[in-house]
Amino acid sequence: MTRRVSIFGATGSIGQNTIDLIARDPGRFDVVALTGGQNIARLAEDAKRLKAELAVTADPARLDDLRAALAGTGIEVAAGQAALIEAATRPADWIMSAIVGVAGLAPGLKALEQGTTLALANKESLVTAGPLLMATAARHGARILPVDSEHSAIFQALVGEDIAAVERIVITASGGAFRDWPLEKLAQASVAEASSHPNWDMGQRITIDSASMFNKALEVIETKEFFGVSPGQIEVLVHPESLVHALVGFRDGALMAHVGPSDMRHAIGYALNWPDRVDLPVERLDLARIGQLNFRSPDPARYPALDLAQQVMRQGGLAGAVFNGAKERALDAFIAGHIGFTDMAGIVARVLDKLTSQSGLVNDQITLDNVARLDHLARKGVDAEIAMRG
Ligand code: NAD
Ligand code: MG
């Protein structure tokens, strides 16, 4: 039987890896919707190749381009936020959530409301609205399958286990582009330097977030929200080889490690075929050739984002929405050349402090509207911080 699948963020790094797997096995899948942003040519080409029913661009100004690119194909086209939400209501068995940023939250929630299985690459959904996402899935009997490599690894290590027997969860971090740079040099790091990752090939934003470890900070929060463990049970280890993706420690002292190549098609393929395992086109590791795996504790002075994650988890509520919104805006400012690499963490910390100390603000109920409100306030807070610096 074929499975009906949609891909949100189809033109991005995760989206393209998902398409690679689906295109290798076209008889097994019916593609419902593909969504993208500015890359209309890529979106149209993949919609044709995969015989999608619908193609959506997030940008309303690009609707005519998309229509022209798909003229005569019979593929439906649409554009804008409402169209993205509508696409998430189209009956499907499996939806890949691979939009980058908080923009991925609303379509993912809509998919869960239909009872659709959500393969979740968009970690920002769990960071900004974890309790809402998990409750929506439970209410509609929908399943969330983690796609972030660390969380897929944890998920796999927990098969057949009781979460109550888990003592700790260790997620690994490559250390990013600057792991071996002298600390004093970090302030001068350029956007191009921050955009190259030692082990993984990913979108630009997550690659820069890996260099600053904002990505790992998001992933620590993601771990808490998805697996329901307490902040004190989550550890981060720098592991330069990026081959051990996560370890789960049990109360009897056992550590179950997940080891695999740094290729997102493993985690995507696991979620795509779950609960089965199928042949995947990823490298088979030759551990004898690799010889050694290294681990060390992250230096808090190099990676201040990790402490911010602890603060966010202690605060709870909408603090994650503030943290993520401020981080996204600070990252925009770094990419635009308005602030330096190391300025990002300081600015996010100040906005987080300001907004979490205002009474009640982050203690409001976690709803889509409140996430959007706090996200907006956080972005405005970052702009004000940058303006103050002159
Ligand atoms: P990317 O930048 O390569 O692609 C992002 C996709 O989202 C594109 O299709 C783009 O058109 C779309 N998009 C961007 N802004 C949008 C908006 N406002 N509305 C609708 N669509 C929009 O990003 P990526 O690296 O593929 O990452 C996607 C998600 O997966 C992120 O949440 C990231 O943290 C997560 N993730 C990525 C990797 C990886 O290997 N790339 C690994 C783990 C987790
Ligand atoms: Mg990850």
TrEMBL record:
Catalytic activity: 2-C-methyl-D-erythritol 4-phosphate + NADP(+) = 1-deoxy-D-xylulose 5-phosphate + NADPH + H(+)
Assigned keywords, A-Z: Isomerase, Isoprene biosynthesis, Magnesium, Manganese, Metal-binding, NADP, Oxidoreductase
UniProt-annotated binding residues for Mn(2+): D148, E150, E219
An annotated GO BP: isopentenyl diphosphate biosynthetic process, methylerythritol 4-phosphate pathway involved in terpenoid biosynthetic process
Segments forming domain 1-deoxy-D-xylulose 5-phosphate reductoisomerase C-terminal: 144-227
Protein residues bound to 1-deoxy-D-xylulose 5-phosphate: K123, S149, E150, S174, H197, S210, N215, K216, E219
Database matches in InterPro entries: DXP_reductoisomerase (IPR003821), DXP_reductoisomerase_C (IPR013644), DXP_reductoisomerase_N (IPR013512), DXPR_C (IPR026877), DXPR_C_sf (IPR036169), NAD(P)-bd_dom_sf (IPR036291)
DXP reductoisomerase C-terminal domain span: 260-380
Entry EC number(s): 1.1.1.267
Record: residues binding NADPH: T11, G12, S13, I14, G37, N39, N122, E124, G203
Metabolic or biological pathway, per its Swiss-Prot or TrEMBL entry: Isoprenoid biosynthesis; isopentenyl diphosphate biosynthesis via DXP pathway; isopentenyl diphosphate from 1-deoxy-D-xylulose 5-phosphate: step 1/6
Gene3D superfamilies reported in the protein's UniProt record: 1.10.1740.10, NAD(P)-binding Rossmann-like Domain
MF terms in GO: 1-deoxy-D-xylulose-5-phosphate reductoisomerase activity; isomerase activity; manganese ion binding; NADPH binding
Cofactor: Mg(2+); Mn(2+)
One Pfam family hit: DXP_reductoisom
Residue runs in coiled coils: none
Domain 1-deoxy-D-xylulose 5-phosphate reductoisomerase N-terminal, first and last residues per copy: 5-130
Domain of life: Bacteria
NCBIfam families: Dxr (TIGR00243)
Function noted in UniProt: Catalyzes the NADPH-dependent rearrangement and reduction of 1-deoxy-D-xylulose-5-phosphate (DXP) to 2-C-methyl-D-erythritol 4-phosphate (MEP).
Family of this protein: Belongs to the DXR family.
PANTHER family in the record: 1-DEOXY-D-XYLULOSE 5-PHOSPHATE REDUCTOISOMERASE, 1-DEOXY-D-XYLULOSE 5-PHOSPHATE REDUCTOISOMERASE, CHLOROPLASTIC
Protein name per UniProt: 1-deoxy-D-xylulose 5-phosphate reductoisomerase
Species name: Lutimaribacter saemankumensis
Record gene name: dxr
